[in-house]
Amino acid sequence: MKISGQCLKESYPKGVKYTMSTMRSSFGWVRSIAAVILAVAAAPWLEAKPYIRGLYLSPYSSHQEWLLEEICEAGDRGDLNAVVVDMKDDWGILRYPSENETAKKHRAVRPIYEVDSLIARMHTHGIRVIARMVCFK
């Protein structure tokens, strides 16, 4: 069954803005990095509470040294205490060096960052690492 954009638009409540994206942006990493910079910059003005204050790191931003330095500094200040990192993306690709034979056989291992060093680095600055694994889309 094919549903047109117009049909979806009409099903939204009145006053709700409707947007429909049919293409995956190739510049998603830019938005991810911009969001991290904004969150780290705004963190000192946020009231400290005893709950998780974290950021999402895309696989492409997880190996940017300057960005990781900013995140570690925010962790040292207490502004940040968690990061979410993609282990498996929404296309089923593992973004860390996995030894899983099935994943290797299907060429689903395409590492972008070294997960062990990232976890160790974040833990030294008091930052929890939360693994994100997309199960379905």
Largest sheet: 3 strands, parallel
User: Beta fraction of the residues?
Assistant: 5-15%
- Specify the structural class: alpha/beta
The residue ranges in which pLDDT falls below 50 over 5 or more consecutive positions are 1-9, 16-25
Mean pLDDT: 75
Descriptive overview:
- The chain is of the alpha/beta class.
- The protein has helices at residues 5-11, 28-42, 65-77, 101-105, 115-124; strands spanning 54-57, 82-88, 128-133.
- It has a three-stranded parallel sheet with strand order 1-2-3.
- Helix 2 runs parallel beside helix 3 (65-77).
- It is elongated, with a radius of gyration of 18 Å.
- Mean pLDDT is 75; it is low at 1-9 and 16-25.
List keywords for this structure.
12% strand, three-stranded parallel β-sheet, alpha/beta, 137 residues
Sequence-ordered SSE layout with sheet pairings:
Elements (H helix, E strand, L loop, with lengths): L4 H7 L16 H15 L11 E4 L7 H13 L4 E7 L12 H5 L9 H10 L3 E6 L4
Parallel strand pairs: 1-2, 2-3
Helix pairs in contact: 2-3
